[in-house]
Specification:
This protein is of the alpha+beta class. The chain is built from 14 helices and 27 strands. The protein is about 30% helix and about 30% strand. It is globular and about 85 Å long. The structure holds zinc ion (ZN) (2 copies).
Length: about 500
């Protein structure tokens, strides 16, 4: 099934994933805040990316650079000059539009042929009464639009106490440049040999004129970028090293998204054609995802050649080369750049995790997150909250498991409701403590010290001794098989 954006937005707000920024003041345009569950999900996503692409690989290192960089960085990178959109302004209502967007919007029309009645006409269509086409502001329908002007998408600010031209600084529009300007530092301090990559996850800022579609395009966002440097004179499997590694990264990134739950049918590769390629790019391939808004870019993997290092060498006067021991010469490495957006990836994982199903005549909403992505791993639920021994045991179990994972305790509803709530936020397992666990001291009965684990996806149950819980969850939460656990620890029929 395909989930709508409205369904996701409403679930995200209701269950504490994503809130509109500064909502009590009416919201900030296209800025979002991650709530208690959103921050867990986002941290998990970034941690998995770092673990799989940095920690596990001998050829990768990471950095965490400052957001404010020397203004010359943006001159060398071309952002000051070229990171612009052509904009038009309405002279009446002052709204600003991307010039190439104006005719993709429905437009407001005061029709002379019908005594000036107001109509909203679909994008690109003429008025059905008078045949007129849009010439004025599509929003207010009254103002003329200015000729297109170039508008730089970088956020400008000032360093230090004086707001003058000499102290202008920019919030970085991408994390990539920090890897290029630190190339020499990283190379020397870590004694690296080509090929190697530098990774960084962090915030970037773009003053988008038409942001939107929830967290798909926002003005402040997080990126996970890798710059993978290769020796262009090398060959791998008979091919130029940069081309070989470009294909390897495309395959590795696709595999990564699949591994954590994006469905095959919602992923595709899209090759940029010549007209779309940046002038320095040898080849760029996007991984597109079928978002609720349609197919859109999830990440891009570009072969940027030696453009960036050469630009920074030119503007800084520093040599940014690598000494090729074998050929006894200095070369400028080529770079392959797998660049993805955290927020966008999170939206994709949310959309693909979302399922609705009918269980005994009732709708069950489940986020089928991969266990390593799930914001909460285990919920501990007392079957009866009026029984002290049960509540006490449940709190103790939560405290033990919480040493390793995000675990919550909830006793605010009946067990069926509690299960549904955890399903809706994607918690893979619930642990239920009941009378059997603790026994009944009034009747002189001792408990069996076992609790019920309930699996989110199958809704199957297992009865596990409390002392075995940590081991069982270590296995399950790192991809272990539920069926194995269920057969080893069968639940009472
Ligand atoms: Zn207007
Ligand atoms: Zn008309």
């Amino acid at each position: 099934m395909t989930v709508t954006m409205d369904t996701l937005v409403s679930l995200c707000k209701r269950r504490g994933f994503v809130f509109q920024s500064s909502e009590i003041y009416g919201g900030t345009g296209s800025c979002y805040d991650y709530g208690p569950l959103g921050v867990e999900l986002k941290n998990n996503l970034k941690r998995l990316w770092w673990r799989d692409f940095v920690q596990n690989r001998p050829d990768m290192v990471g950095i965490d650079a400052s957001i404010l960089m020397h203004p010359m960085v943006w001159k060398a990178s071309g952002h000051l000059e070229n990171f612009t959109d052509p904009m038009v302004d309405c002279r009446e209502c002052k709204l600003r539009f991307r010039a190439d967007d104006v005719d993709t919007l429905a437009w407001t029309h005061y029709c002379e042929a019908t005594k000036g009645n107001k109509f909203t006409i679909p994008a690109g269509e003429p008025c059905s009464h008078c045949g007129a086409r849009r010439t004025l502001c599509p929003d207010c329908g009254k103002g003329e639009l200015t000729p297109p002007r170039r508008f730089n998408l970088m956020f400008k600010t000032f360093m230090g106490p004086v707001e003058e031209e000499a102290s202008v600084a920019y919030l970085r529009p991408e994390t990539a440049q920090a890897m290029f300007v630190n190339f020499e530092n990283v190379l020397q301090s870590m004694r690296l040999k080509l090929p190697f990559g530098i990774a960084q996850a962090g915030r970037s800022f773009r003053n988008e004129i038409t942001p939107g579609n929830f967290i798909f395009r926002t003005r402040e966002f997080e990126q996970m970028e890798i710059e993978y440097f290769v020796n262009p004179r090398d060959t791998v499997e008979g091919r130029p090293a940069d081309e070989y590694w470009h294909d390897r990264w495309i395959a590795d990134c696709m595999a990564w998204f699949r591994r954590y739950g994006l469905r095959e049918e919602n992923l595709r590769l899209r090759e940029h054609d010549q007209s779309e390629l940046s002038h320095y790019s040898k080849r760029t391939v996007d991984i597109d995802y079928r978002f609720p808004i349609g197919w859109s870019e999830l990440m891009g993997i570009a072969n940027r050649t030696d453009f960036d290092l050469k630009q920074h060498a030119k503007f800084s006067g520093k040599s940014l080369t690598y000494f090729d021991e074998e050929r006894k010469e200095h070369i400028v490495p080529y770079v392959v750049e797998p660049a993805s957006g955290v927020d966008r990836a999170l939206l994709a994982f949310l959309a693909d995790a979302y399922t609705e199903e009918e269980v005994r005549g009732e709708k069950r909403v489940v986020l089928r997150f991969h266990p390593e992505l799930a914001p909460v791993k285990v919920a501990v639920l007392p079957l009866l909250k009026k029984r002290d021994e049960i509540v006490k045991a449940a709190h103790a179990i939560r405290a033990t498991l919480a040493r390793e994972w995000r675990v919550v305790y909830d006793d605010t509803a009946a067990i069926g409701r509690l299960y549904r709530r955890q399903d809706e936020v994607g918690t893979p397992y619930c642990v239920t403590v009941d009378v059997q666990t603790v026994g009944d001291s009034d009747k002189g009965e001792v408990g069996d010290g076992k609790v019920t684990i309930r699996d989110r996806d199958s809704m199957g149950q297992a009865r596990v001794p409390i002392e075995a819980l940590t081991g069982v969850f270590r296995d399950l939460l790192s991809g272990g098989d539920w069926a194995k656990v269920a057969s080893e620890f069968p639940a009472a029929k």
